[in-house]
Amino acid sequence: MDTGWGSPDTRIYYTKKYRQFLSSAPACAIAVIAGAPLENVKTRMQSRHFVNGWDCFKFTYRTEGIRGFWAGTFNPLVSITMSRALGFSIYRKAKYTFDGWIEAATGRSPLQHVNKPGTYPDIYTMTCFTGAGMVSGAVCAVTLTPVELIKNATQTSVLMATGQGDQANPNARRGRVSSWESTKRIVARQGPLGLWTGFRLHIIRDTIGSAIYFGIYETTKQSLNSYYGAEKANSAGAVAMAGAICGIGAWVMTYPLDTMKTRAQNNLVGTAAAAPTAKTTMTTALETAAKTAATSAASASKWKGVEMIILRSVLQNMIQMSMFEQAKVWIDNLEFSDGSRTLPEVERHFGRDSKIHKNGTL
After folding, report:
1. What pLDDT is attached to residue 162?
2. Which of 1, 103, 147, 283 has a 20 to 30 Å separation from 61 between CA atoms?
3. What is the mean pLDDT of each run of 10 residues along the chain (362 residues)?
């Protein structure tokens, strides 16, 4: 192979080396943009009382126009995409780790089993995928908490300013607080750790949710592939259906936690006209966050907007997982100048990569 820095082989090498990230990042970005209107409506329904989703759609359009449905989406898009792509990469590393542990203990590899045509899920595959999902969700919660906090604050800034519809002038449009302004207000009022308000609820939600998400996705995909006699592990129909189902399962189980988190976070920005108070200490910020979360958890329905998140999840995950799996196939099919398709230091067997040591052993 030509190993020169500008050679096609070198570009293909690094594309394959970082396949997981390069496949997941564009898929995540497009899925976030496609599902943003439903995400915005969901967040507003969690934050204020609306009769139903259509009532919230109409109110959002009256007060914010079309832009309101994508509020808080584009500015943090890079950070959201990076965080979610990181989650896929962590998940891959974690499932390889779990696979190694299970193979050492039982003599069978869950990853090799799941990629063999005609096989069905078992306790080992489910343990591998749900365990890896838990690790991915817990690690990513650290970076995603500030991102989601700022996104939620931006999405609901006009809503918070109108005071549940502003009965005096329900059609009035209030100024939207930008992502940067939201960040400054939160730091000014709560200190730097204010950006992690709702972290405990977030890490619980994402640990449980990611475990269910990846567990259901891999299990459903394998079952559908085998049931319909698919010759490859990632047939388009199975991937799309598994993507739709896994999101529903994860959100149904964790939606109350998401509502509690959103309500706790919404109190940090307040109305557009409010003047920032003096900075609090980090300890006070954490105490305030905990009290706010507890108060929010005790009031109102935790299921407001769940229909929006289900619709959004079906749409987003069908797009995201279909693009993700197809991009991986495209990258796998790239050929080096010598005709090979795998990295020189990697041996692939039934979908599981193993590094080849310098002496030629796995």
Report:
1. 56
2. 147
3. 76 91 94 92 85 90 89 81 91 95 95 90 96 96 89 72 47 62 84 89 94 96 90 86 93 90 69 41 47 49 85 94 94 90 65 50 45
Which three-class secondary structure string do you get for the chain? Answer: CCCCCCCHHHHHHHHHHCHHHHHHHHHHHHHHHHHHHHHHHHHHHHHCCCCCHHHHHHHHHHHHCHHHHHCCCCCCHHHHHHHHHHHHHHHHHHHHHHHHHHHHHHCCCHHHHHCCCCCCCCHHHHHHHHHHHHHHHHHHHHHHHHHHHHHHHHHHHHHHHHCCCCCCCCCCCCCCCCHHHHHHHHHHHHCHHHHHCCHHHHHHHHHHHHHHHHHHHHHHHHHHHHHCCCCCCCCHHHHHHHHHHHHHHHHHHHHHHHHHHHHHHHCCCCCCCCCCCCCCCHHHHHHHHHHHHHHHHCCCCCCCCHHHHHHHHHHHHHHHHHHHHHHHHHHHCCCCCCCCCCCCCEEEECCEEEECCCCCCC
Structure-token match 């557009």, residue found: 272
Q: Which domains does the chain have, with CATH numbers?
A: 8-335 (1.50.40.10)
Tokens (6 digits) for 46: 């969690």
